[in-house]
Sequence to fold (186 residues):
Amino acid sequence: MTRGSSLVELLVATMLGLAVLSVLTLVVGMGGRLLAACGARGEAEDTAALAVEAFTFDARRAGFDPCAASVEALADARPTRLAFLADLDASGAIDAASEETIAYVCASGQLSRVVGRQSLPLADRTTTCGFRYLDRTGAEIAVPATGLDAGGRRAVRAVAIDLGLRSGLLHAASARSIVVALRGRS
Fold:
C-alpha cells in the first residue's frame, strides 16, 4: 500500500524550510553589515593616512628659502590652526594666494587644508584634531589659544598632528599622530 504525505507532514516540512531560510537570511544580513563596517573602517584608515601624508609633505617643505630671504617656516601656530610658508618659486617673497602659504585647520569636526585662499576638506568626522609644537629638546611648547608669537614660532623645531576619525558604523576611531621636523632647524 502506498502512503502519501499528510497535511501535518507538509506543514512540518514547510516550517522547517522557513526556519532554515530565516537563519540563512540572518547570516547573509549579518555578513553584509560586517562588510559595510569593515569598509567604513578601511575608509577612515585611508582618510587618516592621506591627511597625515599631506601634512608631512607640507611640513617638510615649510621654510624652503632658496634666496635666503629669511622666510619663516610658520606663519601661524595655534592648537587648532597651523600655517606653513615656503618660497617655492624662488622669488624671495611669499605669495599668500598660492601654494606658498598652506594652512591646516581643525574646526567643526573636520580637518581642512587651505592652499592660498582655497579650502580643501581632508577629513570629516574627526574625533581628535590638533597640533603640537616641539622645541629643540623635543619638549612640547605650551601654546595659548591665540597662538604663538613670532619668537615662539621661531623656537619651534618640529610640529605634530594628532588626528582621530570616527568611522560611521564602527565605534572605534582611526587615530594617527606624527611628528615632523621643520627644515633647517636643529
User: Anything to note?
Assistant: The chain has one domain: 43-181. The two ends are 100 Å apart (CA to CA). Residues 43-181 form one domain. The mean pLDDT is 89.
